[in-house]
């Protein structure tokens, strides 16, 4: 894995500068036990564009989000939380 | 010994003699020789013994593709003699033969071993009787491998330099197409890097008579500003990063666009004895002549499936080799073949080589017709010492496939060619299927131009640069024969090798398919074909053809295996980089060293483990006072109007209710209700909290806090002051007296009680003091700016001298905390431990109304009975169990583990903490610990071993 990622503050860096924070998902409000387990342990793991969290651990230590195609590691967009517009609707429906 | 007359374009400097040794014997060479060319010129024909059967192998490709010439140079194995330049005094040795290349004891495997070592033999033979396994293992270990690493490395003499190169265009392959591409892109202003694996660029031009063209192109490229990385191999394509290894430098090239002009690899033919020394690829024979002035043989036959072999005939005749016959597998005579006949060379159309003759080297060849796929057993014998073969080419697409390109089988050409290229990637030359010289140059130039255009350079007019030449007619008589063509598919006697690296024969592939491994990926893994040093260069295409014949499927259906890095052999050291281990040290690390501390790793930190007497240091904390440097603790300042609200959301207990000047212990939980970290939270003022974390958890907790903050967007500011502040713990019954001498703060028990925090000067330095008790005695944790570390440390030690203060290290701290059964997150807990099972139900306030991380999960877990619980234990007979030893349940099965264990001199017992089955987790219960074959009896102790009521802490 050797792609590059653009930190919204610092600019283009190698991916090793960052820590991966997992898929962006919605934390359930009053989950049933099953929903809680799925939130904690399951991932959609799409083969396609995924919105995910990244932390610039070797730099400004900001949390931001990126949209990356997991098949090609091409990063389409990055943004601070809230900047990537629109409601993020998971391609295969909510868990 | 004897060389041909100087060849135009040869690499030699005949005036410079170089001497080296091969297996102890001196060899004379010329400057510019490779080890292979020098040895061949000196008469050497056997260069190695093959991997499994220990058959003799000689020069075959002379291009670094096949494994036949692998040798050890100056103790380092895995060097290809045919490409490695000679150096004065080199010590070259053979691999894989005992006692020597000429007499190899393991060659008996070739004669007898067949039935014992079929493909996948390690799943079938050498298994029973089981008690023989140690013998089998010894034999197999000594038989395996292709070389020995030197056992001792006296000093690190080899370092890899790393270089990051960002470029506009990376061209991989410096042949005709690659040079044309690099020139085209660079002349339009692109920043171009060209990587080539030869000592000078030019590829095939250099030994097919085009060296003048090659040199002119190279000059033009350099003039255009192309950076040439020569004698270098591109190892793989990793999301746009291409590591190029050149000697001691690893160039990490990241280019916006890539042009792959990696050429095509000449393929050997499949026939009985096709691995005998003296069987050479036409390119190998021509390289020996053109680059090194070495005559590959005296009498030769040539077997070819295309014009390539026929061209070689002409070159060899010109070099003085007597060419007895050319077996051209094509049924229709080509113009080149017709010209050969004019030189009185017999050309046999529709013929191929059926078998080689000879034991140590080629002594003859059997040529035969190939009619409709069956080999005619009546052929013609020729007495010769050289069999030149050319089985077509396979485009070297491995690197470009790693970059995302896809291939498909082309029945007209008889190999797999590129069908799809992702954007930003171009292929030029033979790898793109362009074999004709004019087309090669054109495709290179066009690729370079398109790359330049993609960068925004050049204009519309620039495409009129070169006119596209007419494509040559592909020879149709060729392909159908190849598709069915193995002359030895298992019916004949003797071995026909598809994989020279792993000694896989045609019969082996057939057997693999018969045993059910009928897909290419399975067959590869079962027979190990393509898994050797050549990585499929010599064998992928032929093994797919064999599978096609065996399964009846087309080659396109069978497909190829996934191309994986590294494409070329590279030492691990080149990839491992420098042995740098970043270490964190506290600001007073030097003081610990000066005091004679034993320094050890604790995670990323270098810490004082003890000052020479861990048990004594621990005892001294009970009897007088001790001072320990705990600067490694994570320290976070959480400040803002919503700081209390924020911490309430993160912790399972209430922190907004904490009064200024008070400290509370907090256990962080994940949303799955598992322990993530623990530490203290002090309230400094209305809007300011000071959070401490474990040393190893500091980074993770800061990430966790800032992540939730990013998501929730509360009016809170987070500062990580872990490195900014020094922290010391002064503990012991005399701690109060000592501290009072250094501060104006009222340290009386009433004014500064347990779990209070205060701010004042200590030894003249403004500090935050907390009365907490990790080590179980009266203690003060003092946090202050790191720059004053030495001053405060020394002041405390000086002030405490009359009381008998001694510094204590990490090990005595561990003993002390264990006596109190204070758990260490990560040591006594793991990622699935819950606060309830770990004995900390008080850390979770389920009646807390506010939402908090883990509330739902913890509510659920509170109802569930836990299978195991964390308790303390003491060992009856004084034996110290290993941390990690297994705790048994009542049925004697493994049910838990020891997480911490120490000898306590103060308590005169062996104590520890362990996860035990809940049924056994009551005070006084006997448990059994299984520790590496030994059984220990222990008894559960649920209360702290020392001062269970915590009176000393609260004094």
Structure described in brief:
In chain A, 9% of the residues lie in helices and 35% in strands. Chain A has one helix and six strands; from the N terminus they run E-E-E-H-E-E-E.
The largest sheet of chain A is:
4 strands, antiparallel
Uncertain parts of chain A: 88-95
Task: Give the mean pLDDT of chain A.
Answer: 87
> Which assembly state applies to the chains in this document?
heterodimer
* Backbone structural class of chain B: alpha+beta
Question: How far apart, in Å, are the first and last alpha carbons of chain B?
Answer: 94 Å
Essential attributes:
heterodimer, A: 95 residues, mainly beta, 4-stranded antiparallel β-sheet, 6 strands, 9% helix, disordered C terminus, B: 955 residues, alpha+beta, 7-stranded mixed β-sheet, 24 helices, 28% strand, elongated
Structure, described:
The complex is a heterodimer of chains A (95) and B (955). Chain A has 1 helix and 6 strands, in the order βββαβββ. With 95 residues, chain A is mainly β. In chain A, a hairpin with a 4-residue loop joins strand 5 (63-69) and strand 6 (74-79). Chain B is an alpha+beta fold and 955 residues long. In chain B, 23% of the residues lie in helices and 28% in strands. In chain B, the strands form 12 sheets. In chain B, strands 8, 9, 10, 11, 12, 13 and 27 form a 7-stranded mixed β-sheet that branches. In chain B, a hairpin with a 2-residue loop joins strand 35 and strand 36 (688-693). The longest helix of chain B has 18 residues, at 437-454. The radius of gyration of chain B is 38 Å and the shape is elongated.
């Amino acid at each position: 894995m050797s792609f590059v990622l653009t930190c919204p503050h610092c600019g283009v860096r190698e991916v090793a500068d960052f820590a991966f924070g997992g898929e962006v998902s919605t934390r359930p409000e009053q989950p049933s036990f099953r929903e809680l387990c799925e939130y904690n342990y399951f991932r959609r793991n799409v083969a396609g564009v995924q919105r995910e969290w990244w932390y610039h651990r070797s730099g400004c230590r900001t949390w931001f989000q990126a949209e990356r195609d997991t098949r090609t590691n091409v990063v389409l967009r990055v943004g601070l939380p809230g900047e990537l517009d629109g409601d993020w609707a998971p391609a295969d429906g909510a868990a | 010994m004897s060389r041909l007359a100087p060849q135009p374009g040869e690499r030699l400097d005949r005036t410079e003699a170089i001497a080296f040794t091969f297996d102890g014997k001196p060899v004379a060479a010329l400057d510019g020789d490779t080890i292979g060319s020098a040895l061949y010129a000196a008469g050497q024909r056997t260069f190695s013994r093959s991997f499994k059967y220990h058959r003799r192998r000689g020069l075959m490709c002379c291009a670094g593709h096949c494994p036949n010439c692998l040798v050890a140079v100056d103790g380092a194995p895995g060097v290809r003699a045919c490409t490695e330049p000679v150096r004065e005094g080199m010590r070259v040795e053979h691999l894989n033969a005992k006692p020597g290349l000429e007499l190899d004891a393991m060659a008996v495997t070739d004669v007898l071993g067949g039935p014992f070592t079929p493909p996948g033999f390690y799943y079938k033979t050498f298994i029973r009787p089981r008690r023989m396994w140690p013998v089998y293992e010894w034999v197999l270990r000594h038989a395996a491998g292709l070389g020995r690493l030197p056992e001792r490395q006296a000093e690190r003499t080899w370092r890899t330099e790393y270089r990051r190169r960002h470029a506009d265009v990376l061209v991989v392959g410096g042949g005709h197409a690659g040079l044309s591409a690099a020139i085209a892109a660079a002349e339009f202003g692109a920043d171009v890097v060209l990587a080539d694996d030869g000592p000078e660029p030019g590829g095939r031009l250099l030994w097919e008579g085009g060296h003048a063209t090659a040199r002119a192109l190279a000059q033009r490229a350099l003039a255009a500003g192309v950076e040439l990385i020569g004698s270098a191999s591109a190892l793989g394509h990793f999301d746009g990063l291409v590591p190029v290894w050149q000697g001691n430098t690893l160039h990490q090239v990241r280019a916006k666009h890539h042009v792959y002009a990696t050429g095509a690899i000449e393929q050997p033919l499949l026939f009985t004895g096709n691995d005998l020394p003296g069987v050479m690829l036409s390119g190998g024979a021509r390289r020996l002549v053109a680059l090194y002035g070495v005559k590959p043989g005296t009498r030769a036959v040539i077997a070819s499936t295309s014009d390539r072999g026929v061209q070689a005939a002409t070159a060899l005749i010109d070099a003085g080799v007597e060419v007895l016959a050319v077996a051209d597998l094509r049924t229709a005579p080509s113009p080149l073949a017709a010209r050969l006949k004019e030189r009185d060379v017999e050309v046999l159309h529709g013929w191929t080589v059926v078998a080689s003759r000879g034991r140590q080297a080629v002594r003859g060849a059997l040529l035969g017709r190939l009619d409709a796929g069956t080999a005619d057993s009546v052929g013609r014998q020729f007495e010769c010492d050289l069999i030149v073969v050319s089985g077509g080419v396979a485009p070297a697409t491995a690197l470009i496939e790693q970059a995302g390109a896809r291939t498909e089988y082309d029945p007209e050409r008889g190999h797999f060619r590129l069908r799809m290229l992702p954007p930003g990637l171009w292929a030029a030359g033979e790898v793109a299927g362009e074999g004709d010289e004019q087309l090669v140059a054109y495709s290179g130039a066009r690729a370079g131009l398109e790359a330049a255009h993609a960068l925004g350079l050049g204009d519309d007019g620039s495409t009129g640069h070169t006119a596209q030449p007419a494509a040559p007619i592909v020879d149709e008589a060729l392909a159908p024969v190849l598709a069915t063509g193995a002359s030895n598919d298992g019916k004949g006697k003797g071995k026909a090798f598809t994989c020279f690296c792993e000694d896989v024969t045609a019969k082996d592939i057939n057997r693999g398919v018969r045993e059910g491994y009928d897909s290419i990926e399975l067959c590869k893994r079962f027979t190990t074909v393509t898994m050797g040093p050549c990585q499929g260069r010599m064998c992928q295409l032929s093994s797919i053809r064999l599978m096609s014949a065996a399964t009846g499927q087309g080659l396109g259906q069978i497909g190829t295996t996934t191309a994986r890095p590294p494409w070329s052999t590279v030492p691990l050291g080149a990839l491992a980089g420098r042995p740098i281990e970043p270490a964190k040290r506290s600001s007073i690390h030097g003081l610990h060293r000066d005091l004679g501390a034993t320094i050890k790793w604790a995670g990323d930190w270098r810490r004082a483990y003890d000052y020479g007497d861990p048990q004594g240091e621990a005892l001294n904390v009970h009897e007088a006072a001790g001072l320990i440097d705990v600067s490694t603790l994570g320290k976070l300042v959480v400040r803002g109007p919503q700081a209390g609200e924020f911490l309430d959301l993160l912790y399972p207990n209430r922190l907004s209710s904490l009064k200024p000047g008070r400290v509370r212990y907090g256990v962080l939980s994940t949303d799955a209700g598992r322990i993530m970290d623990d530490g203290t939270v002090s309230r400094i003022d209305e809007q300011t909290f000071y959070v401490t974390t474990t040393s190893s958890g500091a980074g993770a907790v800061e990430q966790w806090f800032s992540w939730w903050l990013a998501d929730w967007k509360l009016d809170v500011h987070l500062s990580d002051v872990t490195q900014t502040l020094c922290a010391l713990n002064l503990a012991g019954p005399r701690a109060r007296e000592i501290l009072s001498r250094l501060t104006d703060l009222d340290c009386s028990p009433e004014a500064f009680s347990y779990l209070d925090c205060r701010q004042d000067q200590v030894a003249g330095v403004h500090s935050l003091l907390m009365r907490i008790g990790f080590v179980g005695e009266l203690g003060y944790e003092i946090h202050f700016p790191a720059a004053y570390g030495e001053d405060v440390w020394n002041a405390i030690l000086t002030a405490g001298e009359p009381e008998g203060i001694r510094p204590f290290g990490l090990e005595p701290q561990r003993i002390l905390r264990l006596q109190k059964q204070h758990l260490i997150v990560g040591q006594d807990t793991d990622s699935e431990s819950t606060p309830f099972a770990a004995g900390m139900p008080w850390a979770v306030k389920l009646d807390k109304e506010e939402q908090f991380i883990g509330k739902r999960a913890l509510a659920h877990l509170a109802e569930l009975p836990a299978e195991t619980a964390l308790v303390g234990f003491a060992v009856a007979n004084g034996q110290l169990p290993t941390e990690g030893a297994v705790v048994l349940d009542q049925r004697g099965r493994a049910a838990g583990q020891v997480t911490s264990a120490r000898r306590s001199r103060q308590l005169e017992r062996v104590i520890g903490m362990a996860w035990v089955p809940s049924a056994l987790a009551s005070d006084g219960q006997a448990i059994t610990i299984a520790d590496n074959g030994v059984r220990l009896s222990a008894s559960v102790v649920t209360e702290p071993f020392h001062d269970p009521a915590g009176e000393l802490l609260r004094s």
